[in-house]
Write a structure and sequence with these properties.
- It is a single chain.
- 24% of the residues lie in helices and 28% in strands.
- With 80 residues, it is of the alpha/beta class.
- Strands 1, 2, 3 and 4 form a 4-stranded mixed sheet that branches.
């Protein structure tokens, strides 16, 4: 039996999303969402929190959308 699920990866580049946006995703057969928490800037190694992370997480949960999160790393070595 083949099982197929579709998910979507979002970050501040998709903007400020609402529960309504996540409801629309579910209607389009998107089963889950992965939300970027932030990133480590390559040049300065400074950590940058995604400006819409908290909102998008809260709105996805409000729409009962399964959520995963990740931190984008630009590490060039294991030590980083």
């Amino acid at each position: 039996m083949k099982v197929s699920v579709k998910g979507i990866d979002i970050s501040e580049f998709q903007g400020y999303l609402t529960a309504r946006n996540f409801e629309e995703m579910k209607r389009d057969h998107i089963s889950f969402v992965m939300i970027r928490c932030g990133t480590t800037l390559r040049a300065s190694r400074e950590q940058y929190v995604d400006k819409y992370f908290e909102n998008n997480y809260k709105e996805a949960k409000k729409a009962s959308m399964p959520v995963g999160t990740y931190w984008n790393s630009n590490a060039k070595s294991i030590a980083e």
